[in-house]
């Protein structure tokens, strides 16, 4: 074999080897880039449904859980609270939750699957403040129509014990009901609809 033929074969071999190694290196360098494009475990968990155990929640009390970085309220209403909701409510802007998008199971005066348990996003529909839970009636600071509910201290919006907005306040609509369902008699799953839809 002549020197020039050996030199050509060697050059071809080295060129092919360089291309092969470069291709493998490129593939390996893309792995971290591609994996960085998929959501992290923390991000996946932030949007995941949340289970809420209501077995220890006393009537009249509420608890706050976090779902998608937002506060979600779970209120266990007393029979007295449910009776207040039953009363005529001409002071409410949207008593049956028909004006804005709500799950079908929230389009009633209780705005819930089971009247005893209310599940709401704890964010005012006006400018995103977090209203306060004020279940006691006959509180003069909220007016003569106050039968208990939620009060937003930022701009004075008021909502009843179903999260329905009062007429004449800055909030344009009822508090939002997130998707949820009952996993059992004492566990609520917030973040996904169940068979109730």
SSE map:
Blueprint: H1 3-37, H2 41-46, E1 50-53, E2 62-67, E3 70-76, H3 79-86, E4 117-121, E5 132-134, E6 149-151, E7 158-160, E8 180-182, E9 187-190
Antiparallel strand pairs: 1-9, 2-3, 3-4, 5-6, 6-7, 8-9
Question: How would a crystallographer describe the biggest sheet?
Answer: 3 strands, antiparallel
Distance between the termini: 81 Å
Question: What is the name of the CATH class of the largest domain?
Answer: Mainly Beta
Radius of gyration: 29 Å
Tally of individual helices: 3
**Strands, count:** 9
For the record, the count of structural domains works out to 2
Overall geometry: elongated
Helix content percent band: 10-25%
Strand order of the largest sheet: 1-9-8
If you consult CATH, what is the topology of the largest domain?
Rieske Iron-sulfur Protein
- Kindly report the average pLDDT value: 83
- The SS-based structural class is alpha+beta
| CATH architecture field of the largest domain | 3-layer Sandwich
CATH level 4 superfamily of the largest domain: Rieske [2Fe-2S] iron-sulphur domain
| Low-confidence parts | none
- Percent range for β-strand residues: 15-25%
